[in-house]
Amino acid sequence: KQEVTQIPAALSVPEGENLVLNCSFTDSAIYNLQWFRQDPGKGLTSLLLIQSSQREQTSGRLNASLDKSSGRSTLYIAASQPGDSATYLCAVWNRGSTLGRLYFGRGTQLTVWP
Amino acid sequence: EADIYQTPRYLVIGTGKKITLECSQTMGHDKMYWYQQDPGMELHLIHYSYGVNSTEKGDLSSESTVSRIRTEHFPLTLESARPSHTSQYLCASSVRDRNTEAFFGQGTRLTVV
């Protein structure tokens, strides 16, 4: 069964810092990897989707990389802002069934203070 | 912005009541999912559907049931709510393709007293 681990569990940084969130997964037979943001009491907002054939994806100040063979992904946030404070979730689309399914990590809770 | 909606957003209900959590999407997605999330824990898949009249149980055992009579609608029902059902329930959808992206609703926070 696929297991997804996110490190660190929590991170608190001053505004303006560049930071890296880590995600690892045990089964490299994946279709894609998706990073989400979750604000307290809210649903999930999709940030980036990396297909298994890609090495990285960028959106604004966010850059996500994927190393499928080693089972790792990183989310890089440049010039962090207080508005970036949220929980960031990593999820992998597994090939466990015909059309795949998502497995989630527990998330990294990020606090960016002014 | 994803067009997937969940109602109600918050629900406090007494033990033994029957409840239905609604989920609708206007994107024409074939695949829909229900996840359960407890505070600080990962999301667990409880039900999914590949299309109309197709429903499957997920990884986490759940006493809830689902139906998929229309493509856009995937309601979740608890016949008799218990305090152990207190949790956040998240609905999601995606296209029927391996290179797909999941879109989530805002969630329903259920409290059973």
Give a description of the structure.
The complex is a heterodimer of chains A (114) and B (113). Chain A is an all-beta fold and 114 residues long. Helix content of chain A is 0%, strand content 60%. Chain A has strands at residues 4-7, 10-14, 19-25, 30-38, 44-51, 56-59, 62-67, 72-77, 86-94, 101-104, 108-113. Chain A is globular, with a radius of gyration of 14 Å. Chain B is mainly β and 113 residues long. In chain B, the strands form two sheets. In chain B, strands 2, 4, 5, 6, 9, 10 and 11 form a seven-stranded mixed β-sheet that branches. In chain B, strands 1-3-8-7 form a four-stranded antiparallel β-sheet, with no helix packed on it. Chain B is globular, with a radius of gyration of 13 Å. Chain A binds chain B through residues 1, 4, 31-32, 34, 36, 41-46, 49, 51, 89, 91, 93, 99-102, 104-107, and chain B through 2, 6, 31, 33, 35, 40-43, 45, 48, 50, 58-59, 90, 92, 96, 98-107, 109.
Brief summary:
In chain A, 0% of the residues lie in helices and 60% in strands. Chain A is mainly beta.
